[in-house]
Amino acid sequence: MTTFPVVPRQGAFRKPLATELQTLSDTTYVRVERDEELAIVVIDRQDKLNALNSDVFSQLGRAFDDLARDADLRGVIITGAGEKSFVAGADIGVLSQMDSLGAVRISREGQQIFLMIERFSVPVMAAIGGFALGGGLELALACHLRIASDNAKLGLPEVGLGIIPGYGGTIRLARVVGLGRAVELTLTGGMIDAEEALGLGLVTAVVSRESLLEQAKKRMRRVTRNGPIAVRMALESVYHALDTSMADALNFESTLFGVLASTEDMKEGMGAFSEKRKPEFQGR
Ligand code: COA
After folding, report:
1. Do residues 102 and 20 touch, judged by C-beta distance below 8 A?
2. Banded pLDDT at 242 (limits 50, 70, 90)
3. pLDDT in tens, 258-275
4. In sequence order, what DSSP letters do the residues of 208-267 get, joined into one string?
5. pTM for the whole thing?
6. Element (H, E) at 193
7. Which of 1, 124, 173, 209 is 20 to 30 A off residue 140, Cα-Cα?
8. How many A from CA of 95 to the centre of ligand 1?
9. Which tens digit of pLDDT belongs to each residue from 90-141?
């Protein structure tokens, strides 16, 4: 496995705004590990339970920018460093000093990066080991797949701080767990444990903390063994349907269905079925 840090550089993903009351530091908070066709993006700011500040966002954006150019990539896993936390939210030290304009910019910065993750061309899985609170849960919600360790605690505690979730949480949580449970979780600001999250469909598996990353890779490989163009287009169709009419969504699905019929992968998948062997997809 190769590991390479996401080195902050001048002019990286975006410059922080003056109103964010911080400057880009030289510390590496996001690193990317490669394991064959998978990339593992690790958020590592353990002294603050991996809380998100402008440096983390900038490095996260840069990491996904770089991964977007990697033609061999088939899946991404996002996780937090340390035993205790996935991401414990936005950095409250920064939030406590923002003015109105700064707050809007902070919200948009997070929304933009989470949207980039949601629209990423290969599936992204959140491997939630410990706290996924506020911006941490919003990050997980922007991922396509989510699994959690048995010590995970998830929630949107923002209203207890006198704010609301600002990185898409008020929209995406309801899409995943339904309106009633989303409103309850958002308005109470309460935390739920991994088993409750499983019951809500907020995560699709609960595993031990030690096995979290291996389980995430194993489950991701159930996806990456499939035709890569088909996987990408299936994601596109599902997410496109969230923002459009039924007629348009069905039309889009048919178009993608048609595009796939021209791929070598389709011939390989169906050929392998009739020859009773495993397909070897080339992504063409
Ligand atoms: N922003 C900034 N710092 C944070 C943070 C956040 N969202 N979450 C945790 N930290 C920091 C703590 O301030 C503490 O730093 P310190 O050692 O310099 O004081 C360190 O991380 C460890 O956290 P601590 O609170 O001591 O751990 P705990 O096990 O007692 O509690 C939590 C864990 C997650 C319950 C608690 O840290 C918490 O409630 N965090 C805020 C969660 C939140 O509201 N997130 C949404 C923000 S919009």
Report:
1. yes
2. very high
3. 999 999 999 999 999 999
4. -TTTHHHHHHHHHHHHHTS-HHHHHHHHHHHHHHTTS-HHHHHHHHHHHHHHHTTSHHHH
5. 0.92
6. strand 191-193
7. 1
8. 13
9. 999 999 999 999 999 999 999 999 999 999 999 999 999 999 999 999 999 9
Report d(CA 133, CA 90) in Å as an integer. Answer: 9
Question: Do 51 and 60 meet the contact criterion of CB atoms below 8 Å apart?
Answer: no
Helices (H), 27-142: 54-68, 92-95, 100-118, 135-142
The percentage of the chain sitting over the pLDDT mark of 70, rounded to a whole number, equals: 91
Are 117 and 142 in contact by the 8 Å Cβ rule? The answer is: yes
List, chain by chain if needed, residues with CB within 6 Å of any ligand 1 atom: 48-49, 51, 88-93, 131, 133-134, 157-158, 161
Residue 215 Cα to ligand 1 middle (Å)? 27
Mean pLDDT over the full length of the chain = 92
d(CA 237, CA 234): 5
Q: Whose CA is nearest to atom 22 of ligand 1?
A: 48
- Please give the distance, rounded to the nearest whole angstrom, from the Cα atom of residue 220 to the centre of ligand 1: 30
Q: How far is CA 152 from CA 34, 58, 193, 196, 197, in A?
A: 25, 26, 6, 10, 9
Q: Among all chains, which residue has been given the structure tokens 């991996």?
A: 50
